[in-house]
Each structure stands twice: as structure tokens, then as C-alpha cells.
Amino acid sequence: MTDPNGKSLTIIGAGLAGALLATLLAQRGWSIDVYEKRGDPRIKGYVGGRSINLALAERGRNALRQADADDAVMAQAVMMRGRMVHFADGRLQLQRYGRDDSEVIWSVHRGDLNITLLELAERAGARLHFDRRLDRVDFDARIARFRDDRSDESFEAGFRALVGADGAGSALRAAMNAQSPLGERTEFLDHSYKELEIPPADDGGFRIEPNALHIWPRGRYMCIALPNDEKTFTVTLFLPNEGDPSFATLKTTADARALFERDFADAVPLIPELDQDWERNPPGLLATLYLDRWRLDGRAVLLGDAAHAMVPFHGQGMNCAFEDCVALARRLGDGDDLASAFAAFEAERKPNASAIQQMALENYLEMRDRVDDPDFLLQRELERKLQERHPERFVPHYTMVTFMLIPYAVALERSDIQREILVRATQGLDSLDGVDWTAVDAEVTARLQPLQDAP
Ligand code: FAD
């Protein structure tokens, strides 16, 4: 049993957020126990098998730096400079994310990242308990019950307070909700995803440009591919659940292959095991989770996907979860009692989580339907020009979310204003020649205050 009064916490889930939070707190002298339902990935290999990768951006890197984890993670990361758009007619176009290579995102392997963070957590003194699935919680007696899925045995552990880093299907959230309703609502997207793989080329290198996030935008659906440091790419097909084409109409591997040959023709020769991958990997659901409350007084708090799962189209779920970890560690270090620290954490992070949830939903439309659209490309061109003319005021939406640390809510508010300016200024134009620069400059100055990044 952990000390009921001292600096001790019990974290549920040793995934990305759980492992990082354990490291941050253990490094600051906290006594940390982490319970994870799966086996130790350092012994058994990461469950999930193949190379599933994630885009790491500045918010995530900033959190990793605070845990001294950035160097170890970056040693295996692959730089992505921008979107490599694969047009339907076979043309390719690299759309840079930022101004130069100081503004890029990084593809990291989920399993390797998790293992790196677990090792750091253990080295910092956190106690990791694998094969322990949270099953039930008695919040009054402060006792949590865990099961070992291999033997079906039960274990009990006392706690001072629980932190739920157990992902979108959080068992701790369910237990808290049963104790005192959290106002939970899940909105499923009517699209799902399936993962496929591009293996290395015969000479052991990458088969396509490695330093890009590849996108095949096709209106109502799309494919993306992110590089892995072992020279593979993880391909993800995002497709509606209903309609044509959809997961409902692709009943056989032959149907899937026919869709790929028609709409993603240049990808087909890159995915030699398309049929096997299609059969092996079930479609994954996509949803946004909304909660009115993330905490139960000083006894439990949620973060990461357990608090605010989002659709993956801004590549920010993990980055946001990592920011949560930094914020909670900071609040816990303020010396307040746990209830006050959890309340301050929720007040700080909840509006920002809602903002990135909304931006992630909006970005799906942009990725699948807009990146090959002339209006959109003209607006991007104007965006770059306005950034040059007003570097302090007009900061592109993607830059604010991806390369800065300003609160997501601020990025959302400014992005909405900027979108209005871009749309209005380019209406009816097919080049920037006809832009009324005097009017646009005046609007930028009037509506956008100079922006400073968060410390
Ligand atoms: P998780 O990573 O889900 O970890 C939860 C952990 O808790 C797991 O280890 C699980 O085994 C454990 N657990 C679950 N239940 C229990 C229990 N009862 N008892 C004990 N342990 C339990 N984010 C990005 O930033 N960039 C991206 O490019 C990106 N791409 C994505 C692509 C897809 C297709 C998807 C679905 C998501 C993507 N995300 C991305 C989001 C990202 O994966 C999540 O936001 C991130 O994993 C959240 O971390 P977490 O630690 O909160 O939850």
C-alpha cells in the first residue's frame, strides 16, 4: 500500500501518457506505481505487432525534453517535411508544413517510443506492474482491484489517488462514472480506418520519398503513409462505413484490391501484401470522447485519451496527451492538495482538449478533400504571403498547432479569424494578382494581435 499522505500516486495504463507521466513524477521525487493490463513489451515485444507510427510535433517534443527523453526518441524518428500529395492523375506535389527544416514533424514508432518511456520511468524509480488490468475500484476504501488476464487471478492494491492514463476505453473512467457521473458522450465518426504496410525496397531502402507524410486525397476518403526508421511505411486507409465505396461495400479482398487499383493505382505495387493485410487487420473505429468532468475530487483524475480521445487527423492525440502530463506534473508540484491540483489541471487543459478535438475533426475534410483543390492552394499561398508581411500577427493554422506551444484554444480562435480573412481575400480569384493588399493588411492588423509563443 502506498503512503496515503505523501507524494505518491497510482497510474492506470503504461501506454504513452502513463509512461511519460510516471517518468516526470518519479524524476520529481514522487512514489509512483503504474498498472498495465498488457505484458511488458520489453520482454514480449510490443502488442500491436507491425510498425504503427505516430507524428510527433513540438508539443510532444517539449514534453519529452522535460523528461530528458527527447534524444532517445529522436534517435529513431524520421523527419517529415510536409505532405506529399499523390493526385489522382499520378502527379506528386510536396506541400511543406513550415518555412524550412526547422518546422517539420517526426514519425515515431509507437512500440519503440513506449519502450523508451517505460525504461526511463523505471530508471527514475517508478514501479511498473504488467499484466494487471484494472477491474474495480472502491474509492471510499481507496482499494483498486486488478486481474491478470493470463491466469484470471485478482490482486488488490491500496492507493492515495488514481490517474487514468488507460486510453479511450478507460476502465478507471467507467469506475469514476459509476461513483459520480462524468457527463460522458462519445461521437463516432461515420468513417473507420485500416492499416496496411509498404515494406522496404529490394535494396533495403525506402520505396518512396521517406521525408514526407504521403497523402492520396480522394474526396470522401483518403490514404496516408508515414515512414518508419526500418524503411517501411505504415499506410492507413480512411473510408466511410456506409455508401459507395465504403467498408460496407468492400466485402472481399478482391473488392479492396479493385478500389486500390482504381483510386490508389501508384500505391498498389508498393503494398505487395495488400490482400493479406486487408484480411489480417480489422477496421478501427474513430470517435471523439467528451466529458463534463475529468476528476473525482482528490481521489482520481483522467488524462490523455481516457479524458479526451479525438480523431487522428491533426496528428495531435499523443502530443496533447503529453502536454497533459507536463501540466499535471506542474500542478502537482505547486504544493496544493490533490483535489486542488486536479481541479487546476482540468481547468487548464479541458478547453484546450476541446479545441484540438474540434480542429482534428475539421482537418479530416482538409486532408481528404481540400489539399488538391485550387481554392485551398491559393489560400495557402496567401497565408504564406501574409506570414511574411505580418510575421508576428499572421501565423498559419498548422504552425500554431504543430510548431508552437500556445494553448490549442488560442490557435483555434485565431485560425477561425485567419480563415475568414483568407477566404474573403481570395474569393473569385485564381491568383494573388487581384488581392486588395491594403484592405487585407488593415484587416490583419485590426483583428489579430501580435502572438507570442507560450514559454
Ligand atoms: P494509450 O496509448 O491508448 O494507452 C493506454 C494504455 O492503458 C495502454 O497501454 C493500455 O493497454 C492500458 N490499459 C487500457 N485499459 C487498461 C486497464 N483496464 N488496466 C490497465 N491498463 C489498461 N497521435 C499523435 O499525436 N500523432 C499521430 O500521428 C497519431 N496518429 C494516430 C493514428 C490513429 C489511427 C489513431 C487511432 C490514433 C492516433 N494518434 C496520434 C492518437 C494517439 O494514438 C493517442 O492519442 C495516444 O495513444 C494516447 O495515449 P494514452 O496514453 O492516453 O492512451
From TrEMBL:
E.C. code: 1.14.13.9
A Pfam short name: FAD_binding_3
Q: Which GO terms describe its molecular function?
A: FAD binding; kynurenine 3-monooxygenase activity
Region forming the signal peptide: none
Q: Which residues form a coiled coil?
A: none
| UniProt domain FAD-binding: residue ranges | 10-357
For activity, the cofactor(s) needed are: FAD
Kindly state which keywords UniProt assigns to this record, in alphabetical order: FAD, Flavoprotein, Monooxygenase, NADP, Oxidoreductase, Pyridine nucleotide biosynthesis
Spans through the membrane: none
Q: In which pathway does it act?
A: Cofactor biosynthesis; NAD(+) biosynthesis; quinolinate from L-kynurenine: step 1/3
Show the SUPFAM superfamilies listed in the entry: FAD/NAD(P)-binding domain
Its family remark reads: Belongs to the aromatic-ring hydroxylase family. KMO subfamily.
Q: Tell me the function of this protein.
A: Catalyzes the hydroxylation of L-kynurenine (L-Kyn) to form 3-hydroxy-L-kynurenine (L-3OHKyn). Required for synthesis of quinolinic acid.
Q: Record's HAMAP family?
A: Kynurenine_monooxygenase
Task: Output this protein's name.
Answer: Kynurenine 3-monooxygenase
Species assigned in the record = Luteimonas gilva
Q: Which gene encodes it?
A: kmo
